[in-house]
Specification:
Elements: E1 8-9, H1 10-17, H2 21-29, E2 37-38, E3 44-46, H3 48-62, H4 67-83
Antiparallel strand pairs: 1-3, 2-3
């Protein structure tokens, strides 16, 4: 009976992650995060994995990492995981 597979809209995802809707929209804008899915009507939907990533972004940023450095770290990790296959 877990909500693990449940998708939520941007406001619910932001609230669950402890950020404002505007912060989450900014994270999307600067490439820190992608929506898990986009509905037929264009609504961005997020799962718990995306919420965990938002929490990580927030924690890293509060620890002093600029958002640009966090984005670069995520991009580097993504490239490493693709190259190691």
């Amino acid at each position: 009976m877990s909500d693990k597979g449940k998708l939520m809209q941007i406001g619910a995802a932001a609230a669950k992650a402890g950020v404002t809707r505007q912060q989450l929209q900014y994270y999307l804008l600067v490439g820190l995060l992608d929506a898990t899915q986009v509905s037929d009507t264009g609504r961005r939907l997020f799962d718990d994995t995306a919420v965990d990533r938002i929490k990580l972004i927030k924690k890293l940023n509060q620890s002093g990492y600029p958002l640009r450095a966090i984005r670069d770290l995520f991009l580097e990790r993504h490239a490493d995981s693709k190259g190691s296959a």
